[in-house]
């Protein structure tokens, strides 16, 4: 199974178009969106190409292939524009070998873990900082932000393929971080 992850779009049309272009080329079965899709939020600057309704239209074209969770900037008003559910605070994907616990990161995260077993994967966004590492038996994965990267990182997204989780740069698909999920 191949999965693609994107987080913290914050209404950026150019970032959305790039993500969807890579998704179409990737062969991934699902696009997992980790929240903060349409609104930029009160603490963030407007991202490049801020166009929430156009972002919604672009994402709706892939609605049947999207799994999403709610971010701290997402609301019921956003849900009214989207044809796929975004109000769940978390989701789970079972790969056959482990569980991927999907969340935005403001409710559950590295400092507030849900009940996970050794080898499970916490997949979150929220910080806009890419992470791919194993800590105390749990794999932590954050694809960063496709529109408003922080911490000196570039815009990025994630992929799960061939037992590896990778964070890739949105501009050139270079690997920023990587962790094996089935060593």
TrEMBL record:
Its cofactor is a divalent metal cation. Keywords: Hydrolase, Metal-binding. Its EC number is 3.1.4.-. Gene3D superfamilies: 3.60.21.10. GO terms for molecular function: hydrolase activity; metal ion binding. InterPro entries: Calcineurin-like_PHP_lpxH, Metallo-depent_PP-like, MPP_YfcE, PdiEstase_YfcE_CS, Phosphodiesterase_MJ0936/Vps29. It holds the Pfam family Metallophos_2. Signal peptide: none annotated. Residues 1-162 form the Calcineurin-like phosphoesterase domain. PANTHER family: VACUOLAR SORTING PROTEIN VPS29 (PTHR11124). Belongs to the metallophosphoesterase superfamily. YfcE family. This is Phosphoesterase. It comes from Trabulsiella guamensis ATCC 49490. The gene is yfcE.
